Amino acid sequence: ARETPREPQLRARCRASRPVATDRLGLVAYARDGALVTVPVSGGKERVLVADGVRADEQHPVAWSPDGRWIAYGSGILVSPSGRVCRPFGLPLHDFTWAPRSHAFVGLSATGALWWRTQEGQKERVLTGPWGASSFRFDPTGRRLAISRIRRRGEKVTRSSLWTLDLESGARTKLVDEKESASALRVAGWSPDGSWILYWRENISASLSADGAPLMAVPASGGDPVKVLESMLPYRDFLTWCEDALVATAGGGRDITKGKYLVRVSAPEWQAVRLRNTDTQLKNEYWPSCAPKPYGSYVAATASPDRFEDRVGTLPRSIHFFTLQDQNRGGFSLPREAAEYPLWAEHDRGTTITLLFVSRERGGDRAATLYLQRGEGSTEVAELGPVDGYYAHYDYSSIMDWYQPGLLRNK
């Protein structure tokens, strides 16, 4: 077991910070060996913002504010691109997320209370503990939260439910009430138009949940839940939206190199259509990423052989491009082995493909390198160092984040 880094005592006041100066490809922030580092994607020197004590996981990701003024990490600590550090609520957080259109910030404290801090510096406790909030995500407007709630009697889960919270009015609405004590709900996200909420219906047993869970959808205005997928691994980086179509990594089993495939589903029918892969050697697919409009209807994803790894990191991996509209075309692959986790550039206009991807050379080494792909050539952006993984699912979405100016996100 690794020792948890000690985090410093920090001021609660977060004074105004200027947006970071960068070109259209922006900056990547990442945690490496306990430090928080930024580097320009187009090329330039690394800058160490925090020298040590930085941890990153799904509840404590490295996450840029959409306006580029702050980077969140650890237990809800904020650091500006100039290196100014603060803790916005004055207490450690167990989970946090940014609003998609500003640097409004929501975090969950150890008591189960939910805190909200606005761009103007207003701080408010919107759900008092022990209310039981367990996961949450903003809608596309930044006004509402989808929140899962878990009620316990001692260590036993007695009920799980899904709610919406209007941050302006304070109104709460219950959408789903799960009465089976063996189940727990976890928010996956919202549809781009804000009309649906996606969530996983997980088993409270960590071992059983690790092999997959049903993906569900419920109308945000209220109504009956719909089962979108029978089973998938409950990772948010296994979901991506291509305008109004959801592309997901389907298939149960905790090892991501076995039995995984991409499907396209759309509301309100939520009928899954499998995306076609023409590569006969790399038939296992995961980590989808939808292309922005200038590139057309492509989805980039990691593709690998469909079999268990004797040793993690030893299978070949490539980035395959799937087509959404013409299912018979099947797409094409990036001519590079040991490439995974693609991220599209949103503002690099033109006819050539521009994206970031991660490479771990085959042989089981956890050390990872970040590359920029432009057309047919790639250049190194940063050494990410060792990255923790669970059955070949490396936590890239938590240890790094890409700030692209003008991009609205809901990470």
Topology of this protein?
Layout: E1 27-32, E2 35-40, E3 47-50, E4 63-64, E5 71-73, E6 77-79, E7 85-86, E8 95-98, E9 105-108, E10 114-117, E11 123-127, E12 133-138, E13 144-153, E14 156-166, E15 172-178, E16 183-190, E17 196-203, H1 206-209, E18 213-219, E19 226-232, E20 239-242, E21 245-250, E22 261-265, E23 273-274, E24 284-290, E25 298-304, E26 318-323, E27 332-333, E28 340-344, E29 354-359, E30 367-374, E31 377-386, E32 389-390, E33 393-394, H2 396-399, E34 400-403
Antiparallel strand pairs: 1-2, 1-34, 2-3, 4-5, 5-6, 6-7, 8-9, 9-10, 10-11, 12-13, 13-14, 14-15, 16-17, 17-18, 18-19, 20-21, 21-22, 22-23, 24-25, 25-26, 26-27, 28-29, 29-30, 30-31, 32-33
Question: Key features?
Answer:
four-stranded antiparallel β-sheet; 2% helix; disordered N terminus
Count the helices. How many? 2
Count of β-strands: 34
Work out the strand percent: 35-45%
Radius of gyration equals 20 Å
Taking pLDDT < 50 over at least 5 consecutive residues as the criterion, the unreliable ranges are: 1-5
Q: Please summarize the sheet with the most strands.
A: 4 strands, antiparallel
The whole-number mean of residue pLDDT values reads 86
Main structural class: mainly beta
How far apart lie the N and C ends?
A: 28 Å
Strand arrangement, major sheet: 3-2-1-34
Taken from the alpha-carbon principal axes, the silhouette is globular
Helix content: under 10%
